[in-house]
Amino acid sequence: MDLHEYQLEAVETALFGFAGHAVYPEGEITLPLTLGTGDLRKTVMTVFTVVDAPSCYNIILGRTAMNEMRAMASTYHQKIKFPVRGRVGEVKGDQPSSRRCYEETVWVDQKKARREEKGKENQEKVTREREVHFVAEEEQEVVEIEPGKHIRVARDMNASTRVNLLNCLKANIGSRPVKQKKMHFGPEKDKVIEEQVGELLRAGHIREVQFPTWLSNVVLVPKSTGKWRMCVDFRDLNKACPKYCYPLSRIDQLVDSTSGCELLSFLDAYQG
């Protein structure tokens, strides 16, 4: 569809299947959805949640999209009907295609079940670390934080937490999410980045995140030893953050403070 990752809006809520497994979306995107043919066509702007998961279906229409279309579905007749300018439009299902989708779904589910059984322990560990809390749409209420801008919050949220959350959102409403384009460094530098990121992951200093905004590219800086030092370009994040009122001390003050000391140690703990 000629869509790109930077067009996706961030989503922090996981999707749960019937078996209770969590799927973390790639993001959301609003696209025009058209049902029907000829003069009996109807188009509405629909929010699609994009997931990277094996499925024989291209899209799945949820209750929100069906409500926008004012559509009614009949599994017995394999039809969807909806009003169009005082008339009735319809979408007809195809029985052979439905049977094929069902068979493919069963095959995908079986294959997925075997794979999930193999990595069940790791999945449970990741789920515990993320502590995902899902709130159904019926348990949410719309709150206006600025004229024309609304958010959804849980109805049973603690009063103090609710006040702090809304105050935080109002104070930072001017900051738009930034999506940096992924930088490419070439095979040699990519290998260095992969190695250093792997070390940080194994050490537990960083972890994987599931959102496309506020991600900062890494930057490789050559060291005097001929090796590469990996840094992170936090300029976009720094622009959106409050300025720190107490900057670092002046280097001449630090040097003067060592006056009278017998020993001065420069320890590079990272290099051991």
List keywords for this structure.
3-stranded antiparallel β-sheet, alpha+beta, two-stranded antiparallel ribbon
Briefly characterize the structure.
The chain is α+β, with helices and mostly antiparallel strands and 272 residues long. Helix content is 31%, strand content 22%. The longest helix is centred in the middle third of the chain and has 24 residues, at 95-118.
Widest sheet: strand ordering: 5-6-7
In the predicted model, the low-confidence regions spanning at least 5 consecutive residues are none
Helix content: 25-40%
For the termini, the CA-CA separation is: 50 Å
Oligomeric status of the shown chains? single chain
Q: Give the structural class.
A: alpha+beta
What is the overall pLDDT average? 82
Compute the number of strand runs: 11
Give the biggest beta sheet.
3 strands, antiparallel
How many distinct helices?
A: 7
Order of helices and strands: EEEEHEEEHHEEHHEEHH
